Amino acid sequence: MDSSLLRSMKVIKGLQIGCLALCGDLTNDFVKKALESFPDYEKLSLDRIPFDSHKLNKYLVQNLKSLCIGEAQRLKIDQVLVTNSETIRLYSSEFTENDLNRFLKLWIRGSNSRLKFFFTWGQPQLGGRSFNKIAILKGIKYEQIPLDGQEVYKDYISVHFRNVPLAGGFRTWRPNGTSAVIVVECKRLKFVVE
């Protein structure tokens, strides 16, 4: 085992880890060992997935407050559907409009019950410059928020909040009355549970 990892383990043994951030020029082997060595944390941030994406599943089902993956190309929408985090941020994903439509429909039916905020930067179909909102919302009942609406979501980033405008978004509901807003901007989708 890497000596710096061993030293870190000795120093923080028994402490609650708030955020395990494995970012930068770390090798895949180092990231794998760190994930195995520090199993208890509230938030997980990875620059990239260090192994086959199916091996990530055991980390996705943990009751995390936050999950952030910088290079999420290998992550499948089915894996997002079993993720048990309050906040999910996935960059460089390869989700299509059909994937996101499926995610939304399954959320409406009860999947991802702990989810409060989902963000993904994806790949529109046919190499388009932006997601097709009609394809994402196909078959979903929604109400559009006016473009001049003042509604915002307070998104907690690092140590501060920032307001995420919901104007122009689409509000949908679960049968139990829980509502969520979908905001589609270019290649980004934000999903906020209210």
Summarize the structure.
By secondary structure, the protein is an alpha/beta fold. It is built from six helices and eleven strands. Helix content is 24%, strand content 31%.
Summary keywords:
194 residues; alpha/beta; 11 strands
Walk me through this protein's architecture.
It is a single chain. With 194 residues, this protein is of the alpha/beta class. It has a domain at 52-139 and 184-193. 24% of the residues lie in helices and 31% in strands. It is built from six helices and eleven strands. The chain has helices at residues 3-12, 28-37, 57-60, 77-82, 97-109, 133-136, and strands at residues 17-22, 41-48, 66-71, 87-90, 117-121, 143-144, 152-157, 160-165, 170-173, 179-185, 188-193. The chain starts with a helix and ends with a strand. The mean pLDDT is 83. It holds the Pfam family FBA_2. Residues 56-118 form the Sdz-33 F-box domain. InterPro entries: F-box_Sdz-33 (IPR012885), Zygotic_Embryogenesis-Asso (IPR053222). This is Sdz-33 F-box domain-containing protein.
